[in-house]
Design brief:
141 residues; alpha+beta; 5-stranded mixed sheet; 5 helices; 37% helix
């Protein structure tokens, strides 16, 4: 996949990358509508976070094709399938909590979820392409 910039600090390549897709030889390539959604997500949520924090925001998972979503145990109606969601890597709990609070107070998101599995934490954030439809739903697990 070519390096197409969605915003100043985010590329299409990183928004569609997946170690699981590579390992299982799954073609994880978004279509034009999904790319448009990824761009809105980057513009409304990820780029503002990156600029406010002054450091890279690492994406664990953003766009997922149906098969990849199934293989990673994603929800059947996951916004990842539409290019509307990203999982942000959290390097430590303090930073993660700071980022979560900042996103909650400063961005136009649809869902913001604090997630973890064992001792690994991440922030799931989504944004609808029609930003007026965002629900600002917060789930802190």
């Amino acid at each position: 996949m070519e390096k197409i910039k969605l915003t100043e600090h985010f590329t299409l390549e990183e928004m569609a990358q997946s170690r699981t897709a590579v390992r299982l030889a799954i073609r994880n390539v978004p279509n034009a509508q999904q790319i448009a959604c990824l761009k809105v997500l980057c513009q409304q949520v990820l780029e503002p976070l990156r600029k406010a924090m002054g450091k890279p925001v690492i994406i664990n998972s953003a766009y997922r094709c149906w098969l990849l979503n199934q293989k990673v145990g994603g929800a059947r109606n996951s916004q990842h399938l539409k290019g509307q969601a990203a999982d942000i890597r959290v390097t430590n709990l303090a930073e993660g909590r700071t980022w979560f609070a900042w996103l909650m107070e400063n961005t136009n998101f649809d869902q913001l979820i604090w997630e973890h599995r064992k001792s690994t934490y991440w922030i799931h954030v989504s944004c609808k392409p029609d930003v007026k439809m965002n629900r600002h739903r917060v789930i802190a697990m």
